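User: My collaborator sent over this chain with a note saying "see what the structure looks like." That's all I know about it. Can you take a look?
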Amino acid sequence: MTGKTLFDKVWDQHVVSEITDGPSVLYIDRHFIHEVTSPQAFDGLRNRGIGVFRPKQTIATADHNVPTIDQHLPIRDKLSRFQVQKLTENCQEFGVELYGLGHKYQGIVHVIGPELGITQPGMTIVCGDSHTSTHGAFGAVAFGIGTSEVEQVLATQCVLQRKPKKMKIEVNGQLGRGVLSKDIILYIASKISTSGATGHFIEYTGTTIKELSMEARMTICNMSIEMGARGGMIAPDNATFEYLKGRQFAPQGEDWHLAKQSWEQLYSDENAEFDVVHKFEAEDIAPMITYGTNPGMGMKINGTVPESSENIKALAYMGLTAGQQLLGKEVNHVFIGSCTNSRIEDLRLVASLVKGRQKAPNVQAMVIPGSKQVEKQARLEGLDKILEEAGFQLRQPGCSACLGMNDDKVPSGEYCVSTSNRNYEGRQGPGARTILASPLTAAATAITGRITDVREII
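Assistant: Without extra context I'll predict from the sequence alone. Here is the result:
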């Protein structure tokens, strides 16, 4: 008898019914919402004269459109202010918990779920946001949904979904100096492309993955979507349990022991079958950067821009040429933040590198904590002083310069080394040129003012 994958175990436990040759009706344990993809869904409920079916399983926060300075003041941008206000009104009307601006739990939706213990192993989790795959780091089946599906979940606590195929990505070995989980996922994306996992749910395994912290695992799962996958997940283990224990909304007391016993059964059976398997060696992975206009256009930081007919348009937009080395290229903006790399470990890494150093005068360096809790912890540890003394600006939580939906935009034609997840044309503002990298590579670049191999200054 063929065994089950981790994905099979979680998915199958949540199927309410199946439509022949069609999608499954999938029960959803946790539904996260924010100000951008929820207003139309609430309007749909209002037009139908119905409420939120299980409001206690929906959690809201404001993140995409919020400013990252002076959050105590009214939002200046008219559209952003309207969207955030509508979220507040909708949550009040429909009885949904909201962590809005000023709340101690406010932050990027995919940062606050795990840090509060709302995200747990074995759950199904959705949000009207592509990077919901982040929560898969806990052994959850987590994926992004569209606005019509947000309405489905609000109305029924279920969503119609076709079961994806299964992919295993195995990474074994010891990571080299200066190589982080962000480099792992950029390396994998460069090898299998932005469409290489289309229609699949990925499980990440191997000795390298097992050695990663939970926050590093979240970075890996976060960018699963950048390879076309519906989501990515990692089997829970002692690192998962230690991370969750004692968190605000994690099970407590006897409930904790019962939950942990259940979570310990969440792994792929030895004889489980995957539709596709990829294997990589950690020793082959170096600090990575992107050179083009999708996350799969990545290369080792000391490499040269590859020549390909597919790259012509991307290189024209980026102002680069095939065969060019990017080491030493001047950069004017460094952004450290986003749901990919804005957690306390990311900020600690950056602070450890820049301590006693000074950013280059040609660089504007922004550090955006992923949540109020991360911001508070950073200040408790004195990271704010280290960053500010180095010339970095530590701001308030939000999606910030990950996407051009708020005030934190990169000017047209200028380069930004960014720890975010997407480098599409105009992603950080009209005409902005985005180079994706790890927090260490971004920090090193800010210090020198040029794209820098962090291994040279560690």
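A starting point for your reply to your collaborator: The longest helix spans residues 78-94.
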